[in-house]
Amino acid sequence: MKVRSFCPGHITGFFQIVEHGDPLRSGSRGAGMCVDLGARCELAAGPGSGKVSVRLDRSFEDAPVTVDAVKGLPGSNGMDFEVAIENELPIGQGFGMSAAGAVAASLAASVTLGLGREEAIKSAHLAELKNRTGLGDVAALYRGGVTFRRKEGIPPYGQIDRIEGDPPLVLCVVGRPFSTAIALSDRSIREKVNAAGSECVEHLAESPDLDALMKLSRRFMKRTGLAETKVEVAVAAAEEVGGRASMVMLGGSLFALGDPEKLADVLQHHGRIYRTRVDLLGPRVISKEI
Within 10 Å of residue 17's Cβ, how many Cβ atoms? Predict the structure, then answer.
């Protein structure tokens, strides 16, 4: 069977790390947006011994998060899977592409195994936590749109609320890729993130709207000191033309709302830009062939 699927990318504006003994209850609180540029997957499955091969952007890769997400599905050990993923946004820049690829692949594989969407999300979440490539991306992708992760973990444990709005966005990749796994293992970074993140979560709970999300994301960026100088300069440039912008967590990139033409015009001088908008549909199967 062949299945094609798509999963949006995801931008985190701010977050707080919250871990428990049960990984399904673990993850992050925070806020962000699912975007309509993401990971496109084509998966072929047949009887076998549970082998998973991954071609990522046309090159065969280890892709441990995607492999673990597929292998974590019930019944997968009786099948072989060939996975091809095309990423529409760069890896390592905070756009949740490891999560998007894992979700797209696990969703496609779940179709071949006769499983539901919830099993695919669960397996992808566990794979992300195992490899420390993300904490809340999968939960947010499950909900779609602009999201407020009030409680860590995936449903039914996590609580992910939808914030109204589907604005156009301009993304700009300015600096070097950021290793989420290294950041999550750094005690100093974790302390800064949790101090600023818990405060931002509390404030957004009082006024859960898009304007507050952007202001708090900017505050989080400043308080954590995670942004490179290049990112700070680009954020300031976006604000000079009336935009609202902040660093994408965690990456050498930024996201901006406002007049797309003005933002694209000014940000093109700072790095590679991507025009996108909020995705409201979430992960989905595009087609399947028996």
Answer: 20
Q: What is the pLDDT of residue 241?
A: 98
pLDDT given for residue 275 in this prediction: 98
Do residues 70 and 83 make contact, with C-beta atoms less than 8 angstroms apart? Answer: yes
201-211 pLDDT, tens digit each: 999 999 999 99
Torsion sign, CA atoms 99, 102, 108, 114: negative
Residue 226 sits in which domain range? 164-277
177, 147: one domain: no
- Residues 90 and 13 both lie in one domain: yes
Rounded Cα distance between 260 and 262, Å, is: 6
Do 38 and 124 lie in one domain? The reply is: yes
Q: Specify the pTM.
A: 0.96
Same domain? For 178 and 146 the reply is no
Give the number of domains in the chain. 2
- Model confidence pLDDT, tens digit, residues 32-84: 999 999 999 999 999 999 999 999 998 888 899 999 999 999 999 999 999 99
For 133, the token pair is: 């490539």
Please name the residue that has the structure tokens 């070097």: 176
Q: How far is CA 145 from CA 10, 50, 114, 163, in A?
A: 9, 34, 27, 7
Strands (E), the chain: 2-18, 27-47, 52-56, 59-61, 79-87, 146-151, 159-163, 168-173, 244-247, 253-257, 272-277, 284-289
176: number of Cβ within 10 Å: 12
